[in-house]
Structures are given as C-alpha cells and as structure tokens.
C-alpha cells in the first residue's frame, strides 16, 4: 500500500505499510521502521536503511520492471520485519546472532512464493480442469472464481486464529494512522481513531487485481496442451504482478475520480476480511511507526 501526504509544501513522502506480530512495519524509499508492543507494554523500535537495486541499476525503475522488483523487495523486508517482531513480541532481545542472513531470508521468500503458486495458481487450475470447460474464456473465468474463492476462504479461516486476529487489528491500525497522516491532522490516537481502517491503496486490493488480470492474460494465451497452459500459470506470474502493480499505482494517482472509486470498491470490501477495528494501544504503535519513518526520510 502506498500513501502520500499532499498537505505539506515539501515533496510528498511515499510509504508502504505492513502489520507484523504485535506491531506495524513502515517502509519509505530509503528506510524501514518496525514498531512492536512488548509484553511489558513498552514499544520497541527497529530502524534500517534500505538500498534498492534500482539505485544501482536504473533500468529497474522502468514501468513493469519496477513492479517485479518491488514485489521481491517488499517480501524480503516483510520477512525481516516479521522475524524481528516475533522476537520482540515474546520479550526476546534482538541481537546479531538472531538476525536472519540474506540467504535464509531468500529461502523463506522462495518457499512463500512456491507455496502461494501451489495454493492459488496450480490447484485452482487443476480443479477447474476437472470440470471439463475446455480451454477458452469460460475456463479462465471459472478458474478465476475458484482462485478468488480460495483466497476468501483462506483469509476467513486465518482470521479466526487468535494471533492472526490481532495482526488484522494491527493492519487496521496501520490504515487508521495512514489515513490520519494523509488528512494532515496532528498525529495522535484521539485524532487517528476517527479515521477508517480501510485504505484504497492496501495490498489487499493488489491481490484482487492480480486475480482479475490473470483472467485476461490467460484468455489471451493461445490454446495449447494441458502442461503448456499450466506453465502459463507459473511463468506469467511476474508479468501479471508487474501489470497489477502499475494498475495499483494508477488507482492511487486518480483516487479522487468517481470511476476509480467504483473500481477500487471491491478491494475495500475485501478488507473486511484482512482488517479488524484496532484498539488505542495498536493505533499508538502505528502512529509511532509513521512518525519515525517520516523523521528518517526527512533526515531529521
């Protein structure tokens, strides 16, 4: 999810947010901040300077390529944030021995991507193939419905688990703090509490866009053998993700358009599953993360 604060005179700041164990992670262009509520009720903060590959290789800033890079860098940072928050949330000290190495994080990212491909791409394709719809547009629409159903069932199921319910509350706190920040009000719990837990630029909307774009892409692919059609579902994942990323950026640019509000409405509705109403302590953590990443990005 991307946010901008257009109320300020200086260039707008772009942040990305993510809920973690008992806390919130915020990423700006150059910094990552993780704020976590510990068992003693203190908020511990971890900051890290980021160095994107696009700084070294300018071609990675090109449309579509930047989406693929953003996906992997977000996953990489997300795993680090979750690992830190898990240690902090259970009262363990973070030290050098406990920090995951880049190789370990890469393995976790690769495993996560592989599991996602199996669950949300290969399995829906296999189940739809059993229904004998052929290989045309109807097949792709039914497959998209099956894939979306898998996603909804998965989100509904994990939301019932105690730890995930709190993570979804922190997800709501992240949106609440971001919405308050975007509105230009003074950032405190009392003000932030008035704002919605939903945000149109949330990554949840990205998942929905991916599903819809995949229906279009697979419909354009030439009819082929069963194995080739299955290969499309795997090989085209980076392309579909890149296009979906650009569409998400476009929805942010024209977010005040009535047409765009209609188009992003399904993504907002999906957030009823991925967010929960946060309490004041959670909002406080999210606000601290927003303030800290803003301070670092401004060099204060």
Summarize this structure briefly.
The chain contains ten helices and five strands.
Give the topology, please.
Elements: E1 2-3, E2 15-20, E3 23-27, E4 31-37, E5 43-49, H1 65-89, H2 102-129, H3 137-158, H4 162-183, H5 189-192, H6 203-220, H7 226-235, H8 237-253, H9 258-274, H10 280-298
Antiparallel strand pairs: 1-2, 2-3, 3-4, 4-5
Characterization of this structure:
By secondary structure, the protein is α+β, with helices and mostly antiparallel strands. The chain has one domain (2-298). Helix content is 61%, strand content 9%. It has helices at 65-89, 102-129, 137-158, 162-183, 189-192, 203-220, 226-235, 237-253, 258-274, 280-298; strands at residues 2-3, 15-20, 23-27, 31-37, 43-49. It has a five-stranded antiparallel beta sheet with strand order 1-2-3-4-5. The longest helix has 28 residues, at 102-129. Mean pLDDT is 85; it is low at 1-12.
Descriptive terms for the model:
globular, 10 helices
Chain-averaged pLDDT:
85
The profile of the biggest β sheet is:
5 strands, antiparallel
Structural class: alpha+beta
Helical fraction = 55-70%
Radius of gyration: 20 Å
C-alpha geometry: globular
Query: How many DSSP helices?
Result: 10
Q: How many domains make up the 3D coordinates?
A: 1
Q: What spatial order of strands do you see in the largest sheet?
A: 1-2-3-4-5
- Beta-strand fraction estimate: 5-15%
Alpha-carbon distance between the two ends: 24 Å
